[in-house]
Amino acid sequence: MENSYGSEIPHTPNVQPKNWLVESILATIFCCLPFGIAGIVFASQVNSKWVAGDHAGALEASRQAAKWTKISFLVSIAGFIFALIFVFFFGGMAFLGSLGVMGVNG
Amino acid sequence: MDKIKLLSRPIILGITVLFIALLYFFIDARYSTIFPRCPFNLVTGLLCPGCGSQRAISAILHGDFLHALRLNLLLVLSLPLIVYSALVHTLNAFRTIQLRQTIFYSPLFVKLFLAAVILFWVLRNIPVYPFTLLAPA
Q1: A59-71 pLDDT, tens digit each
Q2: CB–CB of A25 and B38 under 8 A?
Q3: Which of A15, B22, B50, B136 lies at a CB distance of 3.0 to 4.6 Å from B71, suitable for a disulfide?
Q4: Chain B residue closest to A77 (CA)?
């Protein structure tokens, strides 16, 4: 995967590091967490630091943007799975309760 | 072998997107309670920039773009960007010389987008018309 967008760590010093903007936007819209916005802030820093010639700073901002985007996605995927399990578990319990198999009162 | 490796990413992503689309098509989030509520909204009672997005996806999948606009304006406006990015990614999987998504690397564009997100976040929480139009309904 030697392309400029696919690798997390840029392979050449002459290519601006990936800024994770699209991923951050997706995280902001779909994950309902402020972490996605943190990702956009760091994406902005990747661009402005790169333009200012601060390549090390841009690289660090890229790592931060990647980190917050991933945290955002992982937390929301975990939350989604947890919510679905919760719904099916209690849905199942209520169903059993309605059959009088189990005493579910709460 | 390298070709397979390069193509596996967009294929996995494509299957995931298709699966999610089917889920939100057959279980309409606008009328179903099985989908989780936004944790930010649950804790604070306030709307986040993503609130209404699950319902908006279901609305779009059923061709109801007006309702989607009403549920989450930011999502509908960001959709062209997301589609553009997905298209470039897909094209790049077949190309040796990679296309760069230059607009996303413009410092001005990112700052404007960030400002738009924060503005949207604040405005949709103001319980006064016309800002109430930005809250999902």
Answers
A1: 999 999 999 999 9
A2: no
A3: B136
A4: B36
**DSSP string for residues in A35-93:** HHHHHHHHHHHHHHHHHTT-HHHHHHHHHHHHHHHHHHHHHHHHHHHHHHHHHHHHHHH
Q: How many domains does chain B have?
A: 1
Reported as type and span, the H/E element at residue B15 is helix B2-26
A:B CB pairs within 8 Å: 89
* Chain A residues within 8 A of B120 when measuring between CB atoms: none
Using an 8 Å CB-CB cutoff, list residues of chain B that contact chain A: 5-6, 9, 34-36, 38-41, 48-51, 53, 72, 74-75, 78, 81-82, 85, 89, 92, 98, 100-101, 104-107, 110-111, 113-114, 117-118
Summarised one tens digit per residue, pLDDT across range B21-63 is 999 999 999 998 778 888 888 889 899 999 999 999 999 999 9
pLDDT band at B103 (very low <50, low <70, confident <90, very high): confident
> CB A37 to CB B114 under 8 A?
yes
- Whether this model's ipTM surpasses 0.95 comes out as no
All structural domains of chain A with their residue ranges:
21-99
